[in-house]
Design goal:
Elements (H helix, E strand, L loop, with lengths): L7 E11 L5 E11 L3 E5 L6 H8 L7 E6 L2 E2 L4 H5 L2 E4 L11 H11 L6 H10 L15 H13 L5 E5 L7 H16 L3 E5 L3 H7 L2 E6 L2 E7 H6 L3 E8 L15 E3 L5 E7 L9 H10 L4 E8 L2 H12 L1
Parallel strand pairs: 3-8, 3-9, 6-7, 7-8
Antiparallel strand pairs: 1-2, 1-4, 4-5, 9-10, 11-13, 11-14, 12-13
Amino acid sequence: MSDAQDARVIRIEGLGKTFAGGFEALKDIDLDIHRGEILALLGPNGAGKTTLISVICGLVNPTHGRVLIDGYDNVRQFRQARARIGLVPQELTNDAFIRVWDTVSFSRGLFGKPRDPAHIEKVLRSLSLWEKRNNRLITLSGGMKRRVLIAKALAHEPEILFLDEPTAGVDVALRRDMWEVVRQLRDSGVTIILTTHYIEEAEEMADRIGVIRAGELVLVEDKQALMQQLGRKELTLHLRDPLDGVPPTLSQHRLTLTEDGHALVYAYDAEADGDDTGIARLLADLEAAGIAVKDLHTRQSSLEEIFVNLVKEAA
């Protein structure tokens, strides 16, 4: 039975997938996806993002573990589980000569839903497709075709929407329009899981961010908590004379000596003000230790760097 009170609309427990030939695409993944959130899955090509979505949606059977969709086992209770899911695939696979209205309406019928022209109109208008409703798909741009895929996925009023690289090949202006559509869907109560290569896409839209590498889920973090890591800045102090090591008198500071000994790197909280950064005390202690600084500069890490570092650490 569905547990409507459970905040976890999707539960993934010990999920693994090994393909013929022994390739292990997913490795013991545990993940709860919360009702009404946007979860972004980041990972390099071949990391397992699309395989994970395919298993959750019941398109690929897992080797072990299970997936519960709103309380329904997606293998033993496939029809009940799948009815709650809308899937927007990565590839554009529309029938070129069918009209927009017809393909979206047909998708609704596939799930046994009764005809509802008012709902189809609402979906098409929300995606700026209403004026294109009588167009054949072959006449649409790539970005518009991708919107049609989203419309088809929403035709049967799913509670959960999977977007696999939703803005691949879409220009920047249209990408931002689609971000707004995704936010509106989330605000209407739809749970959204997206995969993306665009770091700024995850930063812009997601409530939580997951990172997959080589079939392993190496991190799932609230975006705000992750973004706190963006508040870390580094101050690099270029020294007049190289050091062999960080002097014990400076051990209270978070200092790292570069390999060539010519610079000290100090990490601090970018949100801190004035003396809270510890920079003034550090400079005073350097002077007291007789260490001369000839130049200094600061830099702030990006979400992309955090992602790259996570992937490297998992290697």
